[in-house]
Specification:
- This protein has 154 residues and is an alpha+beta fold.
- The protein has one domain: Nucleoside Triphosphate Pyrophosphohydrolase (Alpha-Beta Complex).
- It is built from 4 helices and 7 strands, in the order ββββαβββααα.
- Strands 4-1-6-5 form a 4-stranded mixed β-sheet, with helices on both faces. The protein has a 3-stranded antiparallel β-sheet with strand order 3-2-7.
- β2 and β3 form a beta hairpin.
- The longest helix is centred in the middle third of the chain and has 13 residues.
- The chain starts with 10 loop residues before the first strand and ends with a helix.
Length: 154
């Protein structure tokens, strides 16, 4: 399954970037305004492994080149309904997306180079969970916090 020209695949990644002290990096989308989220993005094509898409999206959205050894694959994916106002980005009839979860620990002093976002901020996990728009983004933050961020660093 290749996406139609200029259409997104309904398979994506969500990458929770966090520091070593219980804080989560959030990015503010350019459009719509005040839409905070973790790193997200669709696979470029059906043959792109989600793990590689996660590394690519982190680089594209933050400028950070994550070593593969740092990226934690949660081996978890969730399906959600695509909001109606974003369905035009997908092929006709596509209503759901499959999202794969990843996370990585980075230093809070790591330089961030924004490309698709207007701002970023570090927040304690529970504040970050309250600020994000996406229910699945909220869930990964809360799951990570529940595990105890030190245990989740491995």
């Amino acid at each position: 399954m290749q996406p139609e020209k200029n259409k997104k695949l309904p398979i994506s990644v969500l990458v929770l970037l966090h520091d070593y002290h219980g804080n989560v990096l959030l990015l503010n989308r350019l459009n719509p305004p005040d839409f905070w989220q973790s790193v997200t993005g669709s696979l470029d094509d059906i043959n792109e492994p989600p793990f590689q898409a996660a590394l690519r999206e982190v680089f594209e959205e933050t400028g950070i080149i994550l070593p593969q050894s740092v990226l934690r694959d949660w081996h978890y994916c969730t399906e959600y309904e695509i909001y109606a106002h974003w369905r035009h980005r997908y092929a006709d009839g596509v209503t759901h997306n499959m999202e794969h979860w990843f996370s990585a620990a980075i230093g809070a002093d790591t330089p961030i180079a924004l490309s698709e976002h207007s701002a970023y901020q570090w927040l304690p996990a529970h504040q970050a969970a309250e600020k994000v728009f996406s229910p699945s983004n909220r869930e990964i933050i809360l799951q990570w916090a529940k595990q105890g961020f030190q245990a989740a660093l491995s």
